[in-house]
Design brief:
Keywords: Membrane, Transmembrane, Transmembrane helix. By secondary structure, this protein is of the alpha+beta class. It has ten helices and 24 strands.
């Protein structure tokens, strides 16, 4: 009996040591992934740690309401069969010119499985774009593309409209200069077990996410180039009930390239002019109320002789009530778009510029003291009815809430805290 017990104990120890060794080797090997030498930011997703810390979630049954059901490329199980090496951590990088677009370089370990995977999920035909390097381009749904050869696949995920193949070819042309992510890792806070880490390679911004049952805890630090004001004043929204989105920032626009790049991509605003003419405050409030916008459109009809006749019609569209306020000068008012997905009506009061989808809004701004210089909140239970896509409705059914706040550590440093909560599937 004692001998059997000892055999069991030794067997458990051997298995435990083997698993621990595999865990350490996989995590260390994941740092050999390539990134661009001039990366602006790195995103690291710790797949092994996520798996180990959330084992109980693997045994829950799936429903047709899951995001993976509607978007199979988000399901890790499909990638296990893709012929791509799945590391302990996946590292993405972005570039200075486009911080909203992320890339990752992964090794292909089974070319046959990879080609089968592409046939199932790509949205158009595969085609070779560079014969000397034998590179092939493929587009997936959900704003994802890949450019690959027989050894490596470069993936791109982003919103920008410019030519994806040229951007990816430029990265491939610098293949000899690619560096291992471990060579950039000295820039990140030594929190090796965090589930998701996002950090700028110049060490000015770090954000960490730890995922558990029905919650994602956020924390981080933000180093600022200019000193914070002594107090924070933010505008109260016209309607502060049933808010879907609440955002404000008293930071200079130069500190928030994700805003300036977004506007540059979708409205062709010159980024430098936007920064130079703003006065360090912007906010955005969206509630679930709706308003009617009217557009004059041109339609074509036929007369009795079947000649084409131009006719104008008034088209009415129900849109969410959105208020976006900026501090800036007259040049900024002229720069800000009159249309960005919806029509925006501009109202100017001194150095304040209001953009609103509501034509009847009265602009009497009321500023109050706040403790958070940067604040972001989204409540999907209050999502506008006009936004009824499958992802939005899935997030609404799961009652997803995102809350990010900042606190002043010193005149040049913000601490970041937040959480993302959601109901079980």
């Amino acid at each position: 009996m004692k001998r059997t017990l000892w055999v069991i104990i030794v067997a458990v120890l051997v298995v435990g040591i083997a698993l621990l060794t595999l865990y350490i080797v996989r995590k260390n090997r994941s740092l050999d992934q390539y990134v661009h030498p001039n990366s602006y930011a790195i995103v690291s997703v710790s797949l092994d740690d996520l798996l180990l810390d959330n084992l109980d979630q693997l045994f829950k049954s799936r429903t047709s309401d899951t995001v993976e059901e509607n978007f199979p490329l988000l399901d890790l199980e499909n990638w296990w069969k893709a012929g791509i090496e799945i590391p302990a951590q996946i590292h993405f990088f972005s570039l200075h010119d486009d911080p909203l677009t992320f890339f990752t370089i992964q090794r292909i370990d089974n070319l046959g499985k990879w080609k089968t995977f592409l046939k199932e999920y790509v949205t158009d035909s595969l085609y070779t774009i560079d014969d000397p390097q034998r590179l092939t381009l493929a587009h997936f749904p959900s704003l994802t593309s890949t450019l690959y050869n027989e050894q490596y696949a470069l993936f791109r995920i982003g919103l920008s409209k410019h030519d994806r193949s040229e951007e990816m070819k430029a990265i491939w042309s610098e293949e000899k200069d690619w560096v291992h992510v471990r060579d950039l890792h000295q820039h990140v806070d030594k929190r090796t077990n965090t589930h998701v880490a996002y950090y700028h390679t110049d060490r000015t911004f770090q954000l960490f996410a730890d995922i558990s049952k029905n919650q994602i805890a956020l924390s981080g630090q933000w180093q600022l180039a200019s000193a914070l004001p002594a107090s924070t004043q933010v505008r109260q929204p016209t309607e502060n009930t049933n808010l879907f989105l609440s955002f404000w920032s008293t930071l200079p626009l130069a500190q928030m390239p994700f805003i300036t790049k977004f506007l540059t991509v979708f409205s062709d605003i010159d980024e430098a002019n936007l920064i130079d003419n703003s006065y360090g405050y912007t906010d955005l409030f969206i509630n679930n109320s709706m308003t009617t916008q009217r557009d004059t459109i041109v339609v074509y009809d036929y007369d009795e002789d079947f000649n084409s006749v131009e006719r104008k019609e008034i088209q009415e569209t129900r849109v969410p009530v959105m208020e976006n306020v900026w501090k800036g000068n007259d040049q900024l008012a002229a720069l800000l778009p009159n249309k960005l997905f919806y029509n925006f009506n501009k109202t100017l009061t001194d150095s304040l510029i209001l953009l609103s989808t509501n034509e009847q809004v009265e602009f009497s701004p009321n500023f109050v003291t706040a403790s958070s210089p940067f604040h972001f909140l989204v409540d999907f239970s209050n999502i506008p009815n006009a936004w009824n896509g499958p992802i939005f409705r899935s997030l609404q059914r799961r009652d997803v809430k995102v809350n990010v706040t900042t606190s002043v550590s010193d005149r040049h440093t913000l601490g970041i805290e937040g959480n993302i909560s959601y109901n079980a599937k």
